[in-house]
Specification:
Helix content: 10-25%
Oligomer: single chain
CATH architecture: Beta Barrel
Number of domains: 1
Number of helices: 6
Structural class: alpha+beta
Radius of gyration: 16 Å
């Protein structure tokens, strides 16, 4: 399965709301961009406690969801931007129910692995100027996901994102999001997630705590 990367996007932390800063507005880059252990170079995350780092090195928010959002909030200018939701990679034809925790992809010359769903935060609503977007993401499962980088390399617009190995086939990103963010997990599911080696340690710990 190969998907064209239509844009590679990075951002810088800018004033966002009062003293808050954010790098959610990612802009397309020209030419090859380095894919390093902690993400694209250069790229910034304003709050490193919830974005960035080795377990959240690259974010992909499916381009397919932009059309759905137009039906919810109208034709907002940010929906014309491939990195409008803070996505580093603009890719169509790939959504949360089609990929799994631990799936590995060749991204340009780099090798990346899906580590976790993205948990939505208030900055999405402030960026778009619409209340209720976080709740809509939780309800619909249109969350996007993060990759960790297993092999560094380079990627440019026009390169491919190709799945080369399937991880936990029973644990799609959509299912993990429903379980841990949507709060729909059974005790048995929490036990499985706590033991899911490819899931980021923070979410494994959350699952273990919920299991009791």
């Amino acid at each position: 399965m190969k998907h064209i990367v239509t844009a590679v996007c990075t951002g810088t932390a800018r004033p966002f709301l009062g003293a808050e800063t954010s790098a959610i507005a990612k802009r397309p880059r020209e030419g090859a961009v380095q894919v390093l252990a902690e993400g694209l170079a250069p790229d910034e995350q304003a709050d490193r406690t919830v974005h960035g780092g080795p377990e959240m090195a690259l974010h992909l928010y499916p381009l397919d969801h932009h059309a759905w959002w137009r039906t919810r909030i109208g034709d907002h200018p940010a929906l014309d931007e491939p990195g409008g939701f803070g996505s580093n990679l603009a890719v169509a034809g790939l959504t949360e129910d089609m990929v799994h925790i631990g799936d590995r992809f060749r991204l340009g010359t780099a090798l990346v692995e899906i580590s976790q769903p993205r948990q939505p935060c208030w900055k999405i609503e402030h960026r778009f100027g619409h209340k209720g977007m976080v709740a809509a993401i939780v309800k619909s499962g249109r969350c996007g996901w993060y990759f960790r980088v297993l092999e560094t390399g380079e990627v440019a617009a026009g390169d491919t994102l190709e799945r080369v190995a399937t991880g936990a086939a029973e644990w799609s990103v959509a299912r993990v999001f429903r379980a841990l963010v949507g709060g729909k997990a059974t005790p048995e599911e929490l036990g499985e997630l706590a033991d899911l080696a490819a899931l980021t340690p923070r979410l494994r710990a959350r699952a273990a705590a919920g299991r009791g």
